[in-house]
Design goal:
Blueprint (H helix, E strand, L loop, with lengths): L2 H20 L18 H20 L2 E3 L17 H20 L3 H4 L2 E6 L2 E7 H25 L19
Parallel strand pairs: 1-2
Antiparallel strand pairs: 2-3
Helix pairs in contact: 1-2, 1-3, 1-5, 2-3, 2-5
């Protein structure tokens, strides 16, 4: 199996897991957070919906600055208040990542990619490794989101196995 095929299959699995979590986003809770040091639920859900866009950038661009100068971000930051808006954003960001995978090669995924913060390199590694880290980062934030869902009394979907609310294996 090619590396591009392996990573695209992983993308497809993680998109469906994210969709299951985003479907449970309670309305009117965008600004809710469980602790003063926690990020707000709406921002967290937005990240779960749009992280696939990072994968597209890791394939098509040489680098990404996660703390760019004002007006220079390559990522769209838009308030998404409902599960419908979040799922639409997930579908859009996943479509962009899939399109990038279709246009790339395993050889390209072996080339280095850089993550910047305020113009300074904070990480540099082969693209396929950075993409794998992005999948892990995505799963981490989706896990945080499911804790928030539990605390709000919303259903927690089965993601990697059954939950107390959903006994399916996925």
């Amino acid at each position: 199996m090619k590396l591009t095929e392996f990573l695209q299959a992983e993308l497809d699995r993680e998109v469906e897991r994210s969709r299951s979590a985003l479907e449970q986003m309670p309305e009117g809770k965008y600004d809710w957070k469980p602790h003063e040091k926690s990020m707000i639920l709406g921002y967290l859900a937005n990240m779960v919906a749009t992280i696939p866009a990072w994968i597209g950038l890791q394939i098509t661009d040489a680098e990404l600055d996660v703390a760019p100068a004002p007006g220079e971000s390559k990522l769209e930051h838009k308030r998404l208040d409902t599960s419908t808006e979040l799922i639409a954003a997930l579908d859009k960001s996943a479509a962009g990542a899939r399109a990038a995978f279709e246009k790339t090669t395993d050889e390209h995924l072996m080339t280095n990619w850089r993550l910047l913060a305020r113009g300074q390199v904070v990480m540099e590694a082969p693209r396929y490794q950075m993409i794998q880290d992005t999948f892990n980062h995505w799963a981490h934030h989706r896990g945080q989101m499911t804790v928030y869902l539990r605390l709000l009394g919303a259903k927690v979907p089965a993601l990697y196995g059954p939950s107390a609310d959903d006994n399916q294996f996925r």
